[in-house]
Amino acid sequence: MATLVEIAAQIVASHASSTPMTSDQLIFEISKVHSALKNLEAGEPVEGVEEPKASMTVKEAFKKGEVVCMLCGKGGFKTLARHLNTAHGMKPGEYKKQFGIPGKQPLAAKNYSEARRKMALDRGLADNLAKARGVRMANIEAKKAVPAKAAKPAKAAKAAKPAKVTKVAKAPKESAKAKVA
Question: Where does the record place a coiled coil (predicted)?
Answer without folding.
Answer: none
